[in-house]
Amino acid sequence: MPFVTRFAPSPTGRLHKGHAFSALCAFDAAREAGGRFILRIEDIDPTRCRPQFEDGIYEDLRWLGLSWEEPVRRQSDHLADYAAAVETLRQRDLVYRCFRTRKEILDGIGHAPHGITDAVRPGPHPADEEAELLQGGKPFAWRLSLERARDAIGGAAWDTLSFFEEGHGPDGETGRIRVRPEIAGDVVLARKDAGAAYHLACVHDDALQGISHVIRGVDLFEATHIQRLIQTLFGWPEPVYRHHRLMTDADGKRFAKRDGSVTLAALRDGGLTAEALREDVRQQRAF
Ligand code: GLU
């Protein structure tokens, strides 16, 4: 099987050192394996993605010395593909409309007797309520029903569903990992505002692009559980996963957009060379 991997950033800000680390992990792995490296722009969130950040991604990665196959797949150009995939699941009765707002769901969880932590499973609305909401034109998201998904693939397959981890999860998990879809709950597969959501678009494209190795940060390790289930429902191939540690600064703190980490652009303007950055990144490399 040919080795194909990808770096799939979302253009929600300028790239920082953590991104350089992740991109180089995938790029170097492809080189070492004599395989292919794909850059994919995951820009389906219209509230957070900006074209200038996409331009910044190309600029920063080129400066870093990376090259990739053209044309680059930009997810916002392919919303119809993701909608068609959701429609397939709708025809199989595996998704349901959810009209609830985030606040309504969180309030619901707060009032649940035993408190659900992260696994949101609001369930379908009663038919009459749904009809009324539809008629009122209220926007809705499509959620995957774990209950129906379990019925669809069968209890035996559900109980043995797994993925192969060549790197490490946050607690050192490695090798064959049992999938626990309930970690994510009834995830949204199509957002109210965007028509598509991350998990579906991501696994759709991994399958379409023939990704054999998903190399990404350990912060996405938990996402693999639900992504494997979605692959299984569609009969898409199973890639190997290689989650890498997250790069940290001198104080051991992770680089993150929300913390206002110094961007690669700012470091470059300050005189940092791509060679020095690559060296810094490779020093920290370990899966
Ligand atoms: N677009 C995602 C992000 O920027 C990464 C998706 C993935 O690598 O699976 O966090």
Shape: globular
Strand content: 5-15%
- SS class: alpha/beta
Radius of gyration: 20 Å
Main sheet specs: 3 strands, parallel
Low confidence ranges: 113-118
Report the count of strand segments. Answer: 10
List keywords for this structure.
287 residues, alpha/beta, three-stranded parallel β-sheet, three-stranded antiparallel β-sheet, 10 strands, globular, binds glutamic acid
Description of the molecule:
It is a single chain. By secondary structure, the protein is an alpha/beta fold. The protein is 40% helix and 14% strand. It is built from 11 helices and 10 strands. The protein has helices spanning 17-32, 51-64, 79-91, 102-111, 127-135, 146-153, 155-160, 198-208, 223-234, 264-269, 274-284; strands spanning 4-7, 36-41, 73-74, 95-98, 141-144, 162-165, 175-178, 188-190, 213-217, 240-244. The strands form 4 sheets. The protein has a 3-stranded parallel sheet. Helix 2 (51-64) links the parallel strand 2 and strand 3. The longest helix is centred in the N-terminal third of the chain and has 16 residues, at 17-32. It starts with a strand and ends with a helix. Mean pLDDT is 92; it is low at 113-118. Glutamic acid binds next to loops.
